[in-house]
């Protein structure tokens, strides 16, 4: 293939992702984005300027060698590209679907300075899917077992990432999951139409093939404490329990029938497969023919409202107290929601939920807002407009205004320091106040992104490796 000049590369437009038509997909749970074809992937890869500075790697929390894998895609070596990604990320099919590349690797892409950035995430997804469909799991090289054991609490993105690195380093790794299915937020939080559950299961099965042991229905803090894990022979513990404690708004009427947290709503639909009723006879949240409002402007809010639309809501609203510019949700998710018929009621905020004589939600009292000066988040603070209240008919509301940490770990580990929000305090490597205990992901940062949690898992794996080698005086060559 004749090598293109940078000027020629800049003339190639960013390739459009094939996707389901909006008015078809808003009635099913099949994946919205259909993925690149090999031809589209190669054409998109040709747009990469192969920069020496590689700013994109700096923007990637798990440090994927982006330029190198894209250059392999450009010449049609898709399996080689998959191997290159997996040197740093064992979960590329997941990251390629749900990570906010537009805020990380793509935002610093040099191609994007005079046009659209290279679609790094879509290329990552393509090569991961290509490998899975055409050759299946390709086992990476593992270091010999060193006889040391690590316990990981939580099978979400931070826990899985940490497990993947440690098993390759030679450790015996056990992942303890409180629920009956593995995957954490990847399973119970993110809907099927954004992240098919078979993709998550495939990636987890591959970790099991490497030797990672998974134990479900294990509520650490109840079935065992962290101290008991050490007594059982584990040399280090990584806490990756996420932020699964829902926040509410503390306004009148939140106890009415029909008011849900986003956690409960999405867990029922995703984990318990209520979206496949009657094939799965799960407790169903009935939204068909109803007016549904989701309060919030993040990705979880978009997931909830788009799910409600697919379940038959006659009207599905996003109610958000700021403007669209301040919304933390991914631009693509907002765009898809609008295409699917979601109504955005911006600069509005509920101040009361109103029920009937039987305790069922019927209305919300909404107050209009205007933007004031920026607050600590850097976004302009929403200020209520006096006398602007009105009533909105709704039958079901989902509160998606954030989550806190589950207190089980901290309550049963008194020498583990937490901050005022209940998040475990850890340094940049994941080390906590308790020797041998590391933490990362949402349990440390509060609710954040999948890829940031994975980056924390990788950092913790390196720190655990360093800690165990030093503590047990394992020579580097023996560990290798």
Verbal overview:
It is a single chain. The chain is an alpha/beta fold. It is built from 19 helices and 16 strands. It has helices at residues 6-10, 22-25, 38-45, 55-58, 66-74, 78-86, 92-98, 120-134, 157-169, 185-188, 197-210, 226-231, 262-270, 299-310, 331-339, 408-411, 442-445, 450-471, 476-479, and strands at residues 149-153, 172-176, 213-215, 236-239, 245-246, 259-261, 291-295, 315-320, 343-346, 348-355, 361-374, 380-384, 390-393, 396-399, 403-404, 437-439. The strands form four sheets. Strands 3-2-1-4-16 form a five-stranded parallel sheet. Helix 3 packs antiparallel against helix 8 and helix 5 (66-74) packs across helix 8. The longest helix has 22 residues, at 450-471. The model has no long low-confidence stretch (mean pLDDT 93).
What's the arrangement of secondary structure elements?
Layout: H1 6-10, H2 22-25, H3 38-45, H4 55-58, H5 66-74, H6 78-86, H7 92-98, H8 120-134, E1 149-153, H9 157-169, E2 172-176, H10 185-188, H11 197-210, E3 213-215, H12 226-231, E4 236-239, E5 245-246, E6 259-261, H13 262-270, E7 291-295, H14 299-310, E8 315-320, H15 331-339, E9 343-346, E10 348-355, E11 361-374, E12 380-384, E13 390-393, E14 396-399, E15 403-404, H16 408-411, E16 437-439, H17 442-445, H18 450-471, H19 476-479
Parallel strand pairs: 1-2, 1-4, 2-3, 4-16, 6-14, 7-8, 7-14, 8-9
Antiparallel strand pairs: 5-15, 10-11, 11-12, 11-13
């Amino acid at each position: 293939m004749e090598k293109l000049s940078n000027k020629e590369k800049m003339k190639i437009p960013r390739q459009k992702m094939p996707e389901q038509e909006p008015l078809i997909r808003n009635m099913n749970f099949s994946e919205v984005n259909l993925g690149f074809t090999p031809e589209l992937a190669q054409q998109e890869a040709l747009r990469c300027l192969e920069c020496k500075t590689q700013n994109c790697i700096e923007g990637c929390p798990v440090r994927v060698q982006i330029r190198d894998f894209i250059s392999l895609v450009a010449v049609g070596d898709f399996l080689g590209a998959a191997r290159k990604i997996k040197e740093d990320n064992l979960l590329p099919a997941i990251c390629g679907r749900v990570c906010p590349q537009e805020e990380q690797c793509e935002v610093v892409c040099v191609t994007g300075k005079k046009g659209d950035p290279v679609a790094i995430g879509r290329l990552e997804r393509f090569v991961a899917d290509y490998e899975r469909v055409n050759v299946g799991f390709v086992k990476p090289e593992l270091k010999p077992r060193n006889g040391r054991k690590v316990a990981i609490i939580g099978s979400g993105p931070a826990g899985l990432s940490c497990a993947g690195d440690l098993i390759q380093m030679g450790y015996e790794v056990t992942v303890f999951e409180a629920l009956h299915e593995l995957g954490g937020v990847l399973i119970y939080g993110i809907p099927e139409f954004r992240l098919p559950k078979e993709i998550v299961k495939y990636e987890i099965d591959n970790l099991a093939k490497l030797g990672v042991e998974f134990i479900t229905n294990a509520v650490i803090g109840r079935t065992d404490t962290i101290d008991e894990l050490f007594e059982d022979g584990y040399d280090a513990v990584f806490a990756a329990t996420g932020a699964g404690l829902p926040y509410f708004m503390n306004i009148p009427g939140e106890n009415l029938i029909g008011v849900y947290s986003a956690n409960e709503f999405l867990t029922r639909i995703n984990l318990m497969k209520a979206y496949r009723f009657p094939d799965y006879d799960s407790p169903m949240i009935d939204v068909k023919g109803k007016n549904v409002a989701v309060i919030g402007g993040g990705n979880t809010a978009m997931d909830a409202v788009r799910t409600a639309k697919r379940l038959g809501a006659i009207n599905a609203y996003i109610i958000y107290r700021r403007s669209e510019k301040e919304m933390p949700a991914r631009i693509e998710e907002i765009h898809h929601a609008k295409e699917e018929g979601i109504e955005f009621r911006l600069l509005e905020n509920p101040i009361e939920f109103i029920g009937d004589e039987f305790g069922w939600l019927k209305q919300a009292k909404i107050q209009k807002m205007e933007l004031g000066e920026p607050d600590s988040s850097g976004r302009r603070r929403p200020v209520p407009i006096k006398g602007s209240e009105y009533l909105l008919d709704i039958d079901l509301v989902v509160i998606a205004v954030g989550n806190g940490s589950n207190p089980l770990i901290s309550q049963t580990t008194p020498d583990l320091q937490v901050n005022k929000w209940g998040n475990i305090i850890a340094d940049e490597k994941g080390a906590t106040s308790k020797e041998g205990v590391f933490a990362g992901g949402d349990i440390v940062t509060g609710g954040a992104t999948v890829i940031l949690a994975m980056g924390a898992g990788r950092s913790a794996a390196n720190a655990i490796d360093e800690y165990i080698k030093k503590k047990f005086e394992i020579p580097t060559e023996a560990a290798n």
